[in-house]
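Q: Fold this one first, please.
A: Sequence and structure below.
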Amino acid sequence: MVRFPKNFLWGASSAAYQVEGNNIHSDMWAWERKQGWSRSGACCNSWELFDKDVDCLSEIGANAYRFSIEWARLFPKQGELDQKALSRYVEQIGCLKSKDITPIVCLHHFTNPAWLVKQYPSLWADERVVDHYLEFVRVVTDAVGGAVNWWLTFNEPMVYVLQSLVSGYFPPGRVALRRPLTGELMRAVKNLAVAHRQAYRLIKQVNPLAKVSVAQNIAHVVAHKQTMKHQNAAHRWDYFFHWMFLDALAGDKLDADLDGRAEMFLDEPAGDFPSLRNRPVKDHPLGSRDPVKSSDTLDFVGVNYYTRVFVRSVPFLLPPLGALPLYPEMKFKIGTILSWLIGARARGFKADSMGHEIYPEGLLYVMEKAHVRYGKPIMVTENGVATKKDVLKGEALRGHVGSVAAALVKGIDVRGYLYWSLLDNYEWGSYAHKFGLYRVVRKDHFKRVPTAVAAEFKKIVTDAAAKHASVAV
């Protein structure tokens, strides 16, 4: 039996492109056709049915909702603000607050305006993109900044740069599996960090009490085999993919050459990145220095947790990391057969439809690690299971909430738990993966139908909200 804080945020998450529908000015809209994906179309029609989504949140007792504002809706053309779309987002935030549901706004969830990629073919690897993003942030904060106390500047920034500039799965579709992690990729990492820091200041100017972070994908990283080379590869990947970017937000420098020491000041021009092409793979983990103590533009740590990932040492891949993590949702263009031959994932585990191992214990592990490294409050900004099997989804929900409860018992300051996702949505190329607490019957006027897990979520929230009550997890 665990007692949750009275002001604990229980809620669900979504992303504009995945639920709103008809985001025709986004770079992802044309990309769907180019890649031959299933078309997103009207998605869940949440642009028109946002009030129905709020009703769903109220039905399950949620007191928080994380959603994103689509940059391409506000600026369908460069320099041209769609005032009507902005007013609609203002209405949405007002609708949430009228039902005592805390809005948690994400400003960038994988998508950009189509005009941006046409003007800057390398997208976030071009530092000029930062100014356009800040123009968008300034418009949003001027309109709703005083009404929103929780902000996420970017969703999964490291996933985004790898998918867009290494794996080629997102626009602009760069593939660079064997190139050093410099050049476009590390320039994009720096530009995203700079953009976050500047957006942080813009938000604080409007609302000094606001809490600002990013939603960082953090998996429980495990070595493929318990040998030194695989363990070191796992440490290197964990540092690069999870902690390097957060370190740059908590301090003021980026470890641009991946030597474990942050040396590039983020308020200086990018300049030339040091070459890593001839640097050998190290036999010690990157980022093994003392925990980051400074606090600059990271008010809390937003954790997106889904699974644990096994990492294998592959010296020729992604130098100087020399590591292969096979996240099932990170679709590297290396072929299924090669993936199995050098595969880094365990076998025989419970998994969802995306191939994620269902491993709730890992959530406690990553929260503990974030707590030790930063000493900041933590919010679980995404956690969920893609499956049509409500029994499996309910079991996973209880397990992950149990890990949150265990973190509270250990004295970790966890502020909220946001389930991914409120609705069955468009999962970047497919409608096959069912994450939602609610099904969406798209052929029946986008009717929202609660799953059995929605009732289970409500019971957890109701028990937690009961006066002097504890929750059995």
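Q: Good. Now the second chain.
A: Here it is, same layout.
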Amino acid sequence: EAPLSAIYYCPHHPNKGLAGYVCQCNCRKPLPGLFLQAAQDFDIDMSQSVAFGDKIRDLQAAHAAGVPMRILVGKDARGIPEIIEPATHVSRSVLDALPLLSIDCKHECT
């Protein structure tokens, strides 16, 4: 069990959307703005962090923010994706990736 402290999202797009949201920003992945904001808000050391993502843009943003371990997870836990830059590892799901982190699932995991 892990607490959820916040949810971050980018409402911007570089060339379409509602007025006021059409702009170039640092929070739209693959830029690292959302990671950096979370690091500031919660005093997170990105060099000691792990990022999970199911899209390459997620891991590009994590890499740009200085996250050393970036795990590409499969869509809907159906298969293990092929490793591609900037992923450092791949896994079928976040749960299946726990051994990579030396974390034991203490619950009845299926």
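Q: Anything worth noting on the second one?
A: The CA atoms of residues 27 and 43 lie 18 Å apart.
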